[in-house]
Amino acid sequence: MRKVHYFYLLVLATLGIGMFLVNIDMPSASAHVKYTVVPKSLRGTYHRYSKKSHKWSRVKFTKYTYKLGKQPKLSGKKLMTGGLYRQLSITKYDSYYVTELSGTDAAQAFYKGITVTKNGRKMHALKEFVSYPGIKHEYTRIWYPSKIK
Q1: At residue 45, what are phi and psi to the nearest 5 degrees?
Q2: Is 34 part of any domain?
Q3: Does residue 86 belong to any structural domain of this protein?
Q4: Cα–Cα distance between 89 and 66 in angstroms, integer?
Q5: From what superkingdom does this record's organism come (predicted)?
Q6: Secondary structure tally for the chain: helices H, strands E
């Protein structure tokens, strides 16, 4: 009689351990890491002159980074604090790319690559769509690959 009880106890223990192991999330063995990659149409260093402040501004895109002026560089390889998101997030909205700090609603800017003719030369430039809460009219700015007034 006792052997039957031990047998049932052993079966229940085995089933319990089996159910416990099935519910454990095993980490995947995939070594592929997804980085945020900047589209080729945005890559480069661009400048813009402000007539109001009489100063130059600069925006720089590399394959994995974005830097606007003196703001901190955002990287598509580095993780944010907490480790859930990359620092840089780039999404497409209409014909523009939206650069933003990942995991937040803090959109940095809307950019798209364009070709412009300036002083008789065709060049690749960036068009920035500017739309902030509290301003009456949306407008665009052009960023040039060199310091052109």
Answers
A1: -110, 130
A2: no
A3: yes
A4: 10
A5: Bacteria
A6: 1, 9
